[in-house]
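Entry 14. Structure prediction run on the chain below.
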Amino acid sequence: MAAAPAYEHNGAPVAREAFYRIACDPRRNVAVEACAGAGKTWMLVSRIVRALLEEGEGACEPHEILAITFTRKAAGEMGARLDQWLAQFAGQTPEALTTELVLRGMAPGAAAAAAPRLKGLYRRLLDGGRPVQFRTFHAWFAGLVRNAPMAALTALGLPAHYELLEDDAEARGQAWRPFFEAVAADADALADYRALVATHGRSQIAKALGEALTRRVGG
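Output returned:
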């Protein structure tokens, strides 16, 4: 039985080089599906490097790039990876830099032309003072609320002052009492709940409800 292709583009198998030529091109809008450990962070940071090297209409400043992820740890890892790479690139030869860019989907000629810019990218970011933004979804949305006009917050029913929860355990616990009160007040829902408990056990139902709440809060 033939092994599944390692890389696909729109359902068709492609070589690694072709895949990263598409995935790392900052002028393309792409959605990448991959399992854990497949190199998504490498690809995302590579797209950022490529974007910082763009010239002409596609050129952008570091602070104009926003990378959003779910956790502070992941955001920190992406920022650290970018800093590590740029510091490393600053000390490499033109030939080595060309190879790095070819690995990230650039054609050899374009990579050779961009190598001097890549070498100076670390200094450019240090001198600029406004780095690439690596944020969590929660931090980014909190920033939007913090900078929103008061009239907009009032119209949306949002508080002017708030506290971002670092640990939602207490808030999650407060959700259960009104949930079970609503179930108890609905004869059909109560019958369904009792049937599920009888079939699967109380602990399994509690676990399933907890997972459902996690998905609801996260999505």
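The longest strand covers residues 66-69.
Filed with the rest of this week's runs.
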